[in-house]
Amino acid sequence: MEEYARLDAAFYDYYSLGVEGDVQFYVEEAQKAGSPVLEIGCGTGRILLPVAESGVSIVGLDRAPAMLALLRQKLAKYHPDTQSRVELSEGDMRHFSLGRRFKLITIPYRAFLHLLTPKDQRQALTCIREHLTEDGHLIFNIFDPSLEIIAAHLGPLGPALKKDCEFIHPDTGHRVIVWDTRQYDPERQLLEQYFIFEELNDEGRVVTKTYSPLTLRYVYRYEMRYLLELCGYKVAALYGGFRRGPFRYGYEQVWVARRD
Questions:
Q1: Which residues are within 8 A (CB) of 119 and not within 5 positions of it... i.e. 6 or more apart?
Q2: Omega before 186 cis (within 30°)?
Q3: Measured between alpha carbons, how far is 42 from 61 in angstroms, rounded to an integer?
Q4: Do the bridges between strand 132-143 and strand 102-107 make them parallel or antiparallel, or are there none, so unpaired?
């Protein structure tokens, strides 16, 4: 779980753009729940800042100091009223203690998948439950594993390198091409992913190359339901996306759970 703990966190906002509709969804859920909200895995604030702007007080928890530093830089540019609604804390979702409870705790953008073992998952869900009010809800999203996609990556092509996106380097103004390679481990349910950032000068030559590893443990639908129940939750809803439609295989699992 060392992702985003390095300087390459500075590139995060340029290639990690979330899932369509997720910001509006989490803002709406925060407004329904009311202040304060706890967001786990807040990163650089892609969702946290719009929640705070909407008038809801929010606590952001993240284990990566580099990500929180970028968030603080962003926050400093916001209106003082928005700044006053934000509290940031460095911590691990498996074992943190904030000394209070929340009506809503969120884990947006698949951050739950950074937990790489069932033990880690249980520890996190148990710790989170202790921070929920009696009528509080946990809302989070993870991708739904597609067996077809996994099988394709296990085929003869293996972990092929593919272009993901490109952006302009925030400091040098150079073009940066992002390459992505993925490898699945079905036995351990792990997705091992590498992002490669190539910075090109005006002549098109690579002047710097940065490697950023990412490992996630994907979770199947019924496994996730049983895990929630095991850790003292009752599932209130499972959506197939951020429009709150029914679950669909291979898309997104958007879970709403409450203390049982």
A1: none
A2: no
A3: 6
A4: parallel
How is 126-183 classified by DSSP, letter by letter?
Answer: HHHHHTEEEEEEEEEEEEPPPHHHHHHHTSTT-S--EEEEEEE-TTT--EEEEEEEEE
pTM of the model as a whole: 0.95
Beta bridge partners of 95: 92
Q: What does the block give as tokens for 216?
A: 């996630």
Rounded Cα distance between 254 and 260, Å, is: 19
Neighbours of 1 (CB within 10 A): 14
Q: Quick one: tokens of 89?
A: 């804390």
118-130 and 221-230 helices, crossing angle to 10°: 50
Question: pLDDT tens digits for 107-127?
Answer: 999 999 999 999 999 999 999
Q: What is the pLDDT of residues 133-144, one digit of tens each?
A: 999 999 999 999
Structure confidence at residue 1 as a pLDDT band (50, 70, 90): very low
Q: Which of 117, 104, 83 is nearest to 40 (CA)?
A: 104
Q: Alpha carbon of 109 to those of 64, 208, 213, 235, 247: distances in Å?
A: 15, 29, 17, 19, 17
* Amino acid letter for position 61: L
